[in-house]
């Protein structure tokens, strides 16, 4: 199925190398159409920095029923109203988060020929990359990344993980294990909040052994003209949910809410969680994925780590019977996740166009 995606349509340029070359103006390829720029005519006011809901996750497991109910309610309303929230006291070691983030920053600061050994292709996306989508002449984003498969274990190929810095593979392994566990806990909460058995969602997406997880480390270099481009174009995430470790020193993530772009202010040691398209489909749009993008700036580079928690590759996702009735018919047809994901891998990022194009009229 991926045969159409064996190679990139044109030579790959590393954005980090471009930024380091001292250019004063960004190449045409990175200039977004006026309506897509961070401060477009449709968006006169600078984006507001508003915080998405912050959840104290340890309260979900509290012995105090009141705290527990309140935390579950807060997560439910965040999923319904925002599609995004931050979690603190989530049980993942802050030290591990910091070290993993630092080791990836070290990787991106290695000489380009060392990183090039891990260059990726569109067939799997695994490795060191600088673009999404295979459309020739597409307008590109101002970022490089490293993508690797983490789950299921059968897809894990440590030879594709960086061998330098020396601690990278070990940290990826440990960090991946901790954040996948946290995703498992969140899945239980999402299930209970939808009135389902706590393992229902996880089982619908393939069960603990078979769910997918991929780690994408994003590197956003400084940019001489940040008002003309984006680090990542607007999109919703194709999987179940995303768990993001942001760069806590530099804001960059923006969430679309009621037609405006809001800049998320990262909280130290918090993860940012967002709902993906598959959870929207399965819940028949009770939970909704939300469009988001990344802005860049001229003073600082940024590193962030996104763990995508996905259904088993060949699982067929459709609205769960619990959420389908005469009054609320199924909004989406059944679809295999690997087919769904192929859309993004060929077309690149395009807002919520993908999930909306599926809606049964």
UniProtKB/TrEMBL annotation:
<dbReference type="Pfam" id="PF03171">
    <property type="entry name" value="2OG-FeII_Oxy"/>
</dbReference>
<dbReference type="InterPro" id="IPR026992">
    <property type="entry name" value="DIOX_N"/>
</dbReference>
<dbReference type="GO" id="GO:1900150">
    <property type="term" value="P:regulation of defense response to fungus"/>
</dbReference>
<keyword id="KW-0847">Vitamin C</keyword>
<keyword id="KW-0223">Dioxygenase</keyword>
<keyword id="KW-0611">Plant defense</keyword>
<dbReference type="GO" id="GO:2000022">
    <property type="term" value="P:regulation of jasmonic acid mediated signaling pathway"/>
</dbReference>
<dbReference type="InterPro" id="IPR044861">
    <property type="entry name" value="IPNS-like_FE2OG_OXY"/>
</dbReference>
<dbReference type="GO" id="GO:0051213">
    <property type="term" value="F:dioxygenase activity"/>
</dbReference>
<dbReference type="InterPro" id="IPR027443">
    <property type="entry name" value="IPNS-like_sf"/>
</dbReference>
<keyword id="KW-0560">Oxidoreductase</keyword>
<dbReference type="GO" id="GO:0120091">
    <property type="term" value="F:jasmonic acid hydrolase"/>
</dbReference>
<dbReference type="InterPro" id="IPR050295">
    <property type="entry name" value="Plant_2OG-oxidoreductases"/>
</dbReference>
<protein>
    <recommendedName>
        <fullName>Fe2OG dioxygenase domain-containing protein</fullName>
    </recommendedName>
</protein>
<keyword id="KW-0408">Iron</keyword>
<keyword id="KW-1184">Jasmonic acid signaling pathway</keyword>
<feature type="domain" description="Fe2OG dioxygenase">
    <location>
        <begin position="211"/>
        <end position="311"/>
    </location>
</feature>
<keyword id="KW-0479">Metal-binding</keyword>
<dbReference type="InterPro" id="IPR005123">
    <property type="entry name" value="Oxoglu/Fe-dep_dioxygenase_dom"/>
</dbReference>
<dbReference type="GO" id="GO:0006952">
    <property type="term" value="P:defense response"/>
</dbReference>
<dbReference type="GO" id="GO:1900366">
    <property type="term" value="P:negative regulation of defense response to insect"/>
</dbReference>
<dbReference type="Pfam" id="PF14226">
    <property type="entry name" value="DIOX_N"/>
</dbReference>
<comment type="similarity">
    <text>Belongs to the iron/ascorbate-dependent oxidoreductase family.</text>
</comment>
<dbReference type="GO" id="GO:0031418">
    <property type="term" value="F:L-ascorbic acid binding"/>
</dbReference>
<dbReference type="GO" id="GO:0046872">
    <property type="term" value="F:metal ion binding"/>
</dbReference>
């Amino acid at each position: 199925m991926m045969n159409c995606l064996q190679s990139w349509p044109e030579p790959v340029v590393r954005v980090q190398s471009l930024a380091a070359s001292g250019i004063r103006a960004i190449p045409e390829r990175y200039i977004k159409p006026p309506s897509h720029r961070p401060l477009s005519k449709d968006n006169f006011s600078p984006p507001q920095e508003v915080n998405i809901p912050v959840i104290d996750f340890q309260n979900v497991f509290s012995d105090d029923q009141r705290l527990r109910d309140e935390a579950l309610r807060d997560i439910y309303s965040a999923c319904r109203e925002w599609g995004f929230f931050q979690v603190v006291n989530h049980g993942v070691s802050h030290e591990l988060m910091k070290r993993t983030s630092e080791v990836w920053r070290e990787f991106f600061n290695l000489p380009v020929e060392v990183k090039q050994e891990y260059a990726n292709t569109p067939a799997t996306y695994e490795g060191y990359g600088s673009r999404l989508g295979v459309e020739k002449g597409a307008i590109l984003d101002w970022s490089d990344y490293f993508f690797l498969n983490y789950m299921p274990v059968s897809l894990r190929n440590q030879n594709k993980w960086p061998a330098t810095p020396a601690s990278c593979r070990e940290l990826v392994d440990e960090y991946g294990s901790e954040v996948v566990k946290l995703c498992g806990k969140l899945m239980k909460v999402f299930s209970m909040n939808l009135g389902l058995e706590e393992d229902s969602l996880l089982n619908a997406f393939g069960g603990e052994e078979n769910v997918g997880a991929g780690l994408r480390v994003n590197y956003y270099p400084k940019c001489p003209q940040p008002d003309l481009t984006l680090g990542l174009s607007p999109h919703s995430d194709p999987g179940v949910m995303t768990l993001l470790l942001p760069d806590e020193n530099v804001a960059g993530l923006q969430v679309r809410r009621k037609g405006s772009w809001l800049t998320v202010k990262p909280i130290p040691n918090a993860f940012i969680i967002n709902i993906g398209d598959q959870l929207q489909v399965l819940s028949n749009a009770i939970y909704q994925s939300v469009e988001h993008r990344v802005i860049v700036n001229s003073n600082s580079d940024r590193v962030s780590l996104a763990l995508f928690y996905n259904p088993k590759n060949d699982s067929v996702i459709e609205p769960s019977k619990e959420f389908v009735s005469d009054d609320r018919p199924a909004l989406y047809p059944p679809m295999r996740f690997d087919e769904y994901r192929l859309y993004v891998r060929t077309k690149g990022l395009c807002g919520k166009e993908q999930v909306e194009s599926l809606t049964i009229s």
